[in-house]
Amino acid sequence: GGNILSVDKIKKLDGDINSTSGELRYNETLIIGGNIGDDVRLKVKGDLFVGENIGKAEVEVTGNLYVKNGIRGRNGGKVVVKGNIFAKFIENANVVS
After folding, report:
1. pLDDT of 21-60, one tens digit each?
2. Rounded (10°) CA dihedral 57, 31, 34, 21
3. Taking the CA of residue 65 as centre, how many other CA atoms within 13 Å lie in the half-sphere pointing to its CB?
4. CA distances, 42 to each of 3, 4, 7, 38 (Å)
5. Strand-strand pairing, 89-96 and 41-44
6. Can you tell me the distance from the alpha carbon of 43 to that of 69, in angstroms, rounded to the nearest whole number?
7. For residue 22, what pLDDT is reported?
8. Phi, psi at 94, each rounded to 5°
9. How crowded is residue 71: how many other Cβ atoms within 10 Å of its Cβ?
C-alpha cells in the first residue's frame, strides 16, 4: 500500500544564541543546545527545542516550544507560540500561547 515518508527540516545549533544585530529567522525546526540570551530576536517556522533557558528575548514560534529548564523574562522580552509550551518554569515573562 501507499506508504508515506515525511522528512522535516531540522537545524541544530550547539551552545548559546547571544544578542546579535537584527533578527534571526529559521524556516525549519530549530534545536539549540544551550541558552537563548537576553536581547535575542528569533523567529522559527516549526518547533523550537532549547537545551537550557530562554532569557529576556523576543521569540516567535509557529509550532511547539520545548524548554529543558525555563523562561526567565526578567520583566522584558516576549515569547509567542502558536502551539504548546513545555517548560519547567516561567518567571517574570510575557508569554502567549
Report:
1. 789 999 999 999 999 999 999 999 999 999 999 999 999 9
2. -40
3. 27
4. 36, 32, 23, 11
5. unpaired
6. 20
7. 80
8. -100, 105
9. 26
pLDDT of residue 88: 97
Q: Which residue has the cell 522528512?
A: 7
Q: 3-class SS at 53?
A: coil
**Amino acid identity for residue 63 in this structure:** G
**Contacts of 79 by beta carbon, 8 Å cutoff, 6+ apart:** 54, 57, 58, 59, 61, 65, 71, 73, 85, 93, 94, 95, 96
Which cell numbers in the block locate residue 48?
A: 523550537
Q: Which helix (H) or strand (E) holds 88?
A: none
Cell numbers given for 92: 517574570
Q: Which three cell numbers stand for residue 54?
A: 530562554
| Residue the block writes with cell 515573562 | 93
